[in-house]
Amino acid sequence: MLLRFPISKIAITSDGSQAFLQLILADEDRDATRFLWYKTEYTSDGNLCIADEIVTYRFTRFPFGLTSSPFLLSASLRELATMYKQTYPNATKHIENNTYMDDFVIGTSTDTEAITLYREMLQLTSHISLPLAKWTTNSKALQSVWKQENVPFREITQVLGVKWDTDKDVFQIDVQAKIVEASKEPVTKRLLLKLMSKFYDPLGLLVPVTVIVKILFQDTWLSGIKWDELLPPAVAQQ
Hints:
This is Integrase catalytic domain-containing protein. This protein is an alpha+beta fold.
């Protein structure tokens, strides 16, 4: 999905609000989600009162932490796409190919297509009462539509963990801040490993930078340097 994301001229991202809670748990499966909690009831003046009695409750919607919930959410969205493929051809195509869990990462070629796709997505997901939120796009025309309709949207967001600045239309990875933070610690083999793990870079955009750290880390192993031993000045300078 991230590899396809930059290909489109116009990109749109969104996610389903409380997506798991929109899925109804079959009655015969609800006993498997029982849990104990204090009995609660409202007093005559409308205040919530928590009693000492422990009672058994059951989930009627899919809990977020259930092992099968992610799969069932994905399966439900794909079933939705299958059911309405003829009615919403563009939206269903993106749900099938450009959805990760409840994150939608979709793209179009023109502003007109973007606005049409946005409305299709709203109509399609309304069939399962799934509200879409956290909208983001680099299309100024679609942003204008959102402003007119009072739809909240963000100019900077995370696309599957990677920061996207929609105004400049670029991915951002804050390298300098992490290097400055690391420079405050003694330069050791442990610090090199710590520094390598700080960069989330699924697209490999930072490989020209991170490969240098990896080479230095490999050299420390070949030199027999211990984890908390200060690196030689020449290596530390690099």
